[in-house]
Amino acid sequence: MFHSWSIARRLFVANLLFVLVLTAVFGAFSVVEARDRAYDNAGGRMLSLATSIANNPLVLEAAGTADPSSVLQPYARDVMEDADADFITIMAPDRTRWTHPRSEELGKPYIGTIEPALRGEIFTEVTAGTLGPSVRTIAPVKDTDGTVKALVAAGVTVRTVDTDVAERLGVIGGIALVVLTFGSFASWLLGRYLRSVTRGWGPEQLAQLFAYYESVLHSVREGVILIDTHGKAVMYNDQAAELLGLEPSDADRSPDAAPKLSELPFDGSLRALFESGRPAHDEIHLTGSRILVVNQAPAVGPVPERSRQKPAVYGTVATIRDRTEIESLGTELQTMKTLSDALRAQTHEHANRLHMIVSLLELGRTPQALEFATKDLELSQQLTDDMVASVDEPVMSALVMGKAAEAHERGVELVVRTSGSSGVRGLEIQDLVTILGNLLDNAIDAAAGGEFPRQVELSVEAGPAAVEFLVKDSGRGIDPDSIDDVLQYGFSTKSAEGNPRGAHGRGVGLALVRQAVQRLDGTMTISNPGGAQFHVVLPAPVPEEEKA
């Protein structure tokens, strides 16, 4: 049953027991201290009383008479009433009582210690006499020579002292009750707070939950990062560390040791999202080498019961997915679609030309048919020969030829100029497709929407130190104020209307180009010399034989 208790209940019971024990200890200590103090006060009062009586000349004079009791007994009774003492016994040095509260005890020996008093000392003791246990002080009565002529014993019974203590116990009990009440109330308030914070779970359940949480955090394939209200990354899993380029996080690390967002290597848009704490749903953010899909939501605490207060917000939780491969495959698919469309257009055009040649042959105009076929073959082979002869990269040649066919289909002339020999061969195919394919797509779209003559120029220069791509179109160009914006993911100046690709891919291409160029340590500049011009410079790749 104990293991099923919540932390709040355990703390309440423990604190209540502590208050009870503390109250009991405090009460016992107070009782003992009050009793000791009462006995000390009684002893001090009897000491003053016995000393005063012993110093009274009447006592010394009566001690020398034949019947001291006749003088001293009335005197002792008067003093007992005035001093609130239970008994005053004046006796001879041989213990014979001269005074006593009970007349029948006169002449009988005194019960108690008198030896120190016979030596001239004054002392106090607790002992039992004819009236029961009492606190008494014995003082000697001396003559001018210092001889002890009589003894005076003044005292109060223990019952009287205990009565005084009992009167104080009411105050002590009241204080203990107040302490117990306030302690219990404080325990209840603390338990209520803990119940709201821990949601009524016990420590074993919380330990199990933390084990689940840590296991889930490090086993999910998505990156997870927890950010508190002070802008600290208090926790992130291994996948998030890999995607964001962070050092692995220790699950047991103190929140005070967590790094701030300003200390982590985040890119601009991603840093702005994390610092803002705003909700986000499937937002795309580009880092140096990755395309990330980010979801972000606030970490909200439990809603207080029967309270109009808003639940506490402890920070934000962001999940991160890697979309780099998906975008890369999408780009490659779009390129393949472009090539497929180009092949379909060439097939249609080739069929028309074949019909033309067959018709000329049927009409008996063989020389004209031969001349038409020869010129058509020369025009078709020219671009391929130029690309293959200048740049030894068949993938780029195929890409450019496909884009040339697409441009021709849309009424745009693609002019290709190449120089160099083998500087392109070491570049990754995916990077070539991403950079050149997206630049040509944007240029063809811009030229197709512009005035005649519609033209796109592509210059490829592959040197020993760098590879340069220059793509220029005859379109309207780019607004100088928007040059930085066009490189951001999701920003586009195109509309879906009139675009053969529709709305797909808008605001993505140039962002992917920028990412690829940065990953390859290259540079890209944008200008408007009569149209948009993109100049990309990439370091020449190291040949495989030199790497080996």
From TrEMBL:
Q: What is its EC number?
A: 2.7.13.3
Catalytic activity reads: ATP + protein L-histidine = ADP + protein N-phospho-L-histidine
Domain (Histidine kinase): residue spans on this chain: 349-542
Transmembrane parts of this sequence: 169-190
Alphabetically ordered keywords of this record = ATP-binding, Cell membrane, Kinase, Membrane, Nucleotide-binding, Phosphoprotein, Transferase, Transmembrane, Transmembrane helix, Two-component regulatory system
- Coarsely, its chief localization is membrane
Q: Which GO terms describe its cellular component?
A: plasma membrane
Principal EC category: transferase
Which Pfam families does this entry report, sorted A to Z? HATPase_c (PF02518), sCache_3_2 (PF17203)
MF (Gene Ontology): ATP binding; phosphorelay sensor kinase activity
Instruction: Show the SMART domains listed in the entry.
Output: HATPase_c (SM00387)
**Which InterPro entries does its entry note?**
2C_sensor_his_kinase, HATPase_C_sf, HATPase_dom, His_kinase_dom, PAS, PAS-like_dom_sf, sCache_3, Sensor-like_sf
Which membrane topology describes this protein? Multi-pass membrane protein
Report the subcellular localization.
Cell membrane
Q: Which ranges carry the PAS domain?
A: 209-250
Q: Do you know which PANTHER family this protein is assigned to?
A: SENSOR PROTEIN CREC (PTHR44936:SF9)
Q: What is this protein called?
A: histidine kinase
